[in-house]
Fold these 2 entries.
Entry 1:
Amino acid sequence: MAKGLGDRVAIVAMGCTPFREHWDKSADDLLVDAVTECMDGVPGLALDDVEAFWVGTQGSGMSGQTLAKPLGLRGKPVTRVENYCATGSEAFRNAAYAVASGAYDVVMATGVEKLKDSSFSGLTATWPPSDGTDVEWTAPGGFSLLAPAYRARYGLTERELRDALTHIAVRNHANGALNPKAQFRKAVSKEAVERSPRIAGSLSVMDCSGVADGAAAALIVRAEDAHRYTDRPVFLKGMGFVAGNGDGLSTDGYDFTTFPEVVQATAEAYAQAGVTRPREQIDVAEVHDCFTPTELVLMEDLGFAERGRAWADIVAGSFDRDGAVAVNPDGGLKSFGHPVGATGLRMFYECFLQLRGAAGDRQVPGARLAVAQNLGGQPGSCVAFTAVIGNEAP
Amino acid sequence: MAGATITAYAVYLPGYALSTTDFRAEAGSGGRRARSVAAHDEDAVTLGVEAGRRLDGAARDVPVLHLATSEPPYLDKSSAATVHAALALPASVAALDLTGLRAGAGALRTALAAGGLAVLADRRTDAPGAPGELAQGDAAAAFAAGPDGPIRLLAAASGTVELLDRWRAPGAPHPTVWDERFTAGILRDRALDAAARALADAGLGRADHVVVACANPRAAAAARAALGGGADAEVEGLTGYTGAAHLGLLLADALDRARPGETVLAVNAADGADAFVFAVGEGLEAARCGPRVRDQLTGRVPLTYDRYLRWRGLFTVQGPNRPDPAPPAAPPMERRRAWKNALVAVRCTKCAAVTAPPGRVCAGCGAHDALRPEPLRDLPCTVVSLTEDLLAVGPDGPTVQAVVDVEGGGRRSVHVADVPEGGLAVGDVLRPVFRRISSTQGVHNYFWKARPMEKVRHG
């Protein structure tokens, strides 16, 4: 297990563009917008004062110049990172380690994706030359494997599972309707979710997150310096990351009712943060609701629900904004869409707002501890990131 | 060549039948005739692999494999080599391609002359609306020849005539046909001449079983009538004329029906004619591999005409806006040749877990370089979870993909082929099948899908 960074680094400012079909903006424009909002949060600090940068993108740019060029950075180190849909989280993670190591005192993590310019349906990726033997799962195809497996393992009726998945979609869209930065700002009815066209397996369009353009940024400093920049810093309490070895798809044993990589990354983050009763201790959780069954399984992997019981807790409202844990109060991927490189930092952005009491209409009262959880790949072969952040100073 | 024997034979008929070209009709509601249809992901190579793998061990000890087809997936590159690789034949076995409607007879003749494996496989497509559209068909047959089989060649005879009766330039989707009333007489005469010479050499006046393969139905009917045959027309009426495979299909059906002590005359009429006279001996049952031809005609799935046209690429439908799949690259194909061609994974010598695709590290226990080859090609597998993906639409609508556990260990993500009408469920049993995954930039990506286990009776 990694030595924790608990209480060694702090986030003092963040920026996040609206996630949209930004036909009139390039990835460069989106990065400038997100970084500008972020820097506006720390008056007196200039971009030139930031010592190092990370930019996460899956396919909207190559190398650190993805950020250096649009920002006009001079003489700065910029690292481009990619880790599937956890790319934005990976940018944050590396930036945090850089500060904790003592190499830098002030750094910035950014993430961006421009998906709408391609005109393709759904997410696409470019792979290295191969022997052509791998099944090219689409994202909905891969994640739709969770639903029949979960239903079979826990003996749910089709209606019981459907009710839980529908509740996730309805609730996340209701939350997103309150959020000016969400792409989809309209509450949807249960009927609308269940009548929408099917995409893969039992998943309909409304079980899937959308495609969007967006960017986000976080300014990260040493914890002891945090109050120099803001009176409401947010501190990293624990963080875990696992790049799965894919054994769930290459040898027998995995049953598609959990993400083992998420369980491992979360155990590490919780241990560093001293979280032992997540359902009681965590106030807000931004989780990777790329598809509704993903969020269902994550409630168990994050320890918010007993194994085999998340579906019932979801329907009972345990993860609504006034529930035991407010899950995806910003609307999640369901409302925002999923610009790959930006999503992880968008999750931090909402946690940052909630922990500062700045989330407006969707504010969870008294939020003190939040989880930002992000994953990529597919069930059986994924990368997983979990962070615990809080507003209490060390 | 006389005295050579067939040691084993097998036929693969794809699981679909088209009986009407009427858009308004329900599938299967046409006349009594039908044509055999390969699935959208089948071609001469995959059909040939299915026939060849039914020969099992009988196909291994041969010096040469010939693939005969009128529709080779490649021109410059060998298609026989792909069949050779999927059959996991030793590298020392030569693989050679023969093309054209006479190629089946040529492959059989060559196999009998020198010992070898003849794989006859074809996919035939007349133009929509052509008079013979329903009279063409798809099939594959495989014959292993050697010195000690139960089916002995008594005599063979050939003749050649240059004749513009049916032709297709490279790249053309359909053949063009001269007036069949004109060419029928010439082909009939060539067939009867070759048959007469072969029968004379065999010391026979007539044979107990007669089969005539000819693209011209008038010529075939006339030759059958003159030679005392006709039972083969029953099969042809349900498969169509299957091109370079047709001689093999009809010969196999005759062998299915023959009894020890009987003789079989098999004639192929194309650009002349080739005639073979066989004597069937004891041990015929052992030489028959896989189900009988007529058993394969039962249980085929009736196709609607629009689905047939989509499969053949004659009727394109707008799908989701997704990028084309990338073609496979030669170096990774070569590095993983055993996996790519013959579905050979690895089993750990420490913990016995199977890792697929193969790598150097065991997915079960993490041991490095402690793995031995583990062929999965002939093992059934069970569906762990599955999906029907409407975002990934192919020539047959949504693609079906599954995660399966292999009997005895191992897991694969698979494309599912020949999905039954009622769909599939967790727990269903599938078997590996060699199919075309995609074709991009002129590269055909062949690999092993999985399909439901056949319910066909094995005779």
Entry 2:
Amino acid sequence: MLTMVAIAVDGLGFAAWLFLSSVGLTLIYGVMRILNIAHGGFYALGAYSAAWAIGLYTQGGGPIAFTYLLIPIAAFVAGVIAGLLVERGILRFMYGRDEVLMVLVTYAIFLILEDVTKLIWGTESYVSYQPALWLGTVDIFGLPYTVYKFLIIGVAIVCGLLLFWGLNHTRVGKLLLVVIQDREISSALGINVTLFFTVTFLIGATLGALGGALTAPEVSVVPGIGSEIIVMAFAVIVIGGMGSIGGAMIGALIVGFARAASVHLYPPAELFVIYLVMAAVLAFKPYGLFALAESRKI
Amino acid sequence: MLALPVLVGLAFILPTWVVNYAQVSLGTGLVALGILVQMRAGLVSFGQGLYFCVGGYSAGLAGRYLGVSDLFLLLLLAMMASGLISLVLGFLLRRYREIFFAMLSLAVSMILFGLLSRTEALGSTDGFNLPAATYLGWKPEDDLARFALYAATCLVSVFCAIALNRFLNGTIGYVNEAIRGNELRVEYLGASARNAVHITYVLAAVVSSIGGVLWAMSLGHVDPEMTNWTTSGQFVFVSILSGTGNIIAPFIGTFILEIVRVYAVEFSPNTWQMVLGTVMLLTIIFLPKGLWSLIARKRTSGKQLRQPALAAAGE
């Protein structure tokens, strides 16, 4: 019973983290057809800038409550700056190339971003546990959990709902759906496709940075966190069907619970259970759970 | 064929460290060769590290638990292991194309990475050491051993290159090019695209595992990092850098990459990945068909290599 509760709560926690880290990836793929490996770089940038900002702020001795504002601000700044540089500086010259070639382009960008974070923040680890500590813990059936974990779950749900609402119930969102359906026709209709691409990429990058920034208080931020998250995020969006936000949510839940279950029931499997699930899902649904083979929707 | 005596002869002329890099490059070049073979069919494997690792580990395991140190026997064992694994996995992977093939091959290789990282008996993330190589009962010492391993590496690599060249110029090789062009047409013409992909996949796996054995023997060590996605990514990088034009290209590409990496690490230890990434971007922008296109452009004007389909926006 206790194990079941632990699996349920941990699973939700993992799922929220995975969803936040991967939804930007699926958004960018859905709109631009770019499988963006550099997303791991955005994640790392977000984590570093948040940990760095929190560390700097708490040394100054201000009230800890403000650190919760610092996290999204750091993520926004990191995501927008890096996203703009990458999209306007490099990617826009590559549009129209082969999908697989774009993977390599973003892989190259990922390698560059890895070293950029090392150049800015050095190779030592950053710890910024204050926001997570300050909220304290709650007991669920005798198991202590940080309240911060539930905060992340809440943020994930809000982000998911906002994206869903933004896409389906606002004018801009509906226009975006048109762009996804057929970009040539939409640009002929007078929709500024280039602008849509840039904005989508910025939102995706910021979401990736937010995933990293929210994680920063729970872990120590070290070089290499970007490459860890990126393959997991791939697994999540591939399971859900690439380009589908609902799919990313389901994928995150599946992977989250699978990982929590393996942590509590059979720890040695923790590292590869994700890929096992992914291979199993793809064996039956070759394009993921929610992907339409031809006209992909988001 | 001419390459073999030249390569072996180089060992006498060039300084030891260059020979060492050449040897390592031949090992990893074989993996890149495996990727190249699949790329001809339009498939990019982001998990070729899997077979690189299978090769290294089967050599290591055979040395550790069976006491085998004969290079040719180890190669045979690795080929059998990778052949078997790829045959089974091929039934799954042959159904996928493009990005899904890349992702699924990556997933499979990451499963092995996770398994090996958690297996304490095999040294977890640290890996373990391999015995020195023997050759049909002959056990050379010191300098001679180094030279013998280098010569054997050259021999095997050249043999693989020739065999694969034959393959690419054979029926399935051409079917593969047709698959990249238009798969539906291949099926209408009566050839099975899936079978061709399956055979290519197994072949690429076997070649990559040979590369794994040679690489592991020259370093004397294996670890799970061999099948991590960043390793696989670098193999793909080499194939892009060198281009799919010729069978020799991956070897040259690997050697250049190895040199670039060594100098980048030496001059700026913290930014070598940045250098690598920049080189990669520049290659993609300015040499879409790889370094080999520089040579190919000079040599042939009539024998044009087919342009990889640059998919139009939105397909």
